[in-house]
Amino acid sequence: MTTGRPLKRESVVRAALVGGPMYDPLYESLPAFERQSGLKVEVVCHLPHPELNAYVKETFESGEADIDLLSTHTKYAPSQAQWLSPLEDAIPAGDVADLLAHPTELARIDGHLFQIPRNLDVRLLHYRRDLFEDAVAQKDFESVSGRSLRVPETWTELADVASFFARRNRGIRYGFLFPGRDSGLFGTFYEFLVSAGGHLFDESLRPAFASPAGVWAAGQIGELHNGRRTTPADLESWHYDEISASFRRGEAALVSDWPGSYHLYKDRATCEVWDRIGLALLPAGPAGERAAYAGCHSFAIPSSARNRPGGAALLRFLTSFEQQLGEARRGAIPCRASALRSIRAEAEADPSEGRRWQLLAETERFMIIPPRFAAYPSCEDAIWRSVQQAMLGRSTPEQAVRRAASEVERIVELHVTAR
Length: 419
Known about the structure:
By secondary structure, the protein is of the alpha/beta class. Helices cover 47% and strands 15% of the residues. It has 2 domains: 9-120 and 295-353, 3-Layer(aba) Sandwich (D-Maltodextrin-Binding Protein, domain 2), CATH 3.40.190.10; 124-293 and 370-418, Periplasmic binding protein-like II (D-Maltodextrin-Binding Protein, domain 2), CATH 3.40.190.10. The chain has 19 helices and 13 strands. The strands form 3 sheets. Strands 1, 2, 3, 6, 11, 12 and 13 form a 7-stranded mixed sheet that branches.
């Protein structure tokens, strides 16, 4: 990424990129792209996804967008489709054929490939292995609960364990961390909802979460934060990066996190407990089901791109086998079948890595993906904002899910009417 005297527009690729510790290492390869292509990359924005989505909406609605490559997500792209272009002419057929089937399906909108998936995101439970193996903690937990201390298999058990570690407070400030805002809080609610046997929408796209399962899900979030007090007091301001950093500082017993963050957990420079971390599947809910909120980060090319060939070249570079394998080595699940085969073969030499990839493969079996339609981001916002009120004890779980369902129903009706 360079600056200096003005260059001809066809020599510059302007990119709007999602930012954060999970995503930024990939961009370290941009100078290599510049050397190979002779193009210069100008990053016009580099923002966390909520802020990036707002920037995209404002910029494109103003009619002043000048972007050749855009970071997006398979759940957000349908709301941006009016500004995106199909990619069948820009991506070699061999590259498309190398993509995994599910990410490819998610990348299509109305049958056309509007984005190329970067990675497949599903969360795993991260826990402090040393805390669970501590003989004194095991004795204390059994004396107060009548049960053996173990990595929780259910969300109810997790609440008990998290509360125990938060109260015990031997170097631990928090029992279990989860995001208290934005899509992170929505995702936690969605996982709880489905694990309790609930559904987000019905077949007619009507909200279905104002149900006993939805009430339980909102109540469980409130119990973890406001009841058991296993989380930070100001959790409503914490997003993914904050909870990940807190766990890596050794402040928490358990956290759910994404594969793209795993390189930070393995590195002693970025994780004070790097040698004491265990991984497990997300717990099951009252219905005996596990559920893992999932989707794909991706790249797209706006229909208004002034340098479409340059945007396509950068897109192909960032999703190439080499870059996909590099991201996989940092922990992410690649969307190229060839890169996934390579990283799994490499992992065979390391039992802990092999175990992690096995857990990720198991998690893919119970992925949950919300419906993809243009008004979805507004629905997600309405849900997490209402659930947050239950989390903070400002409304009951029943009130929270009813209020959210009413708002979502209004949003969907407007969406259907506008089509």
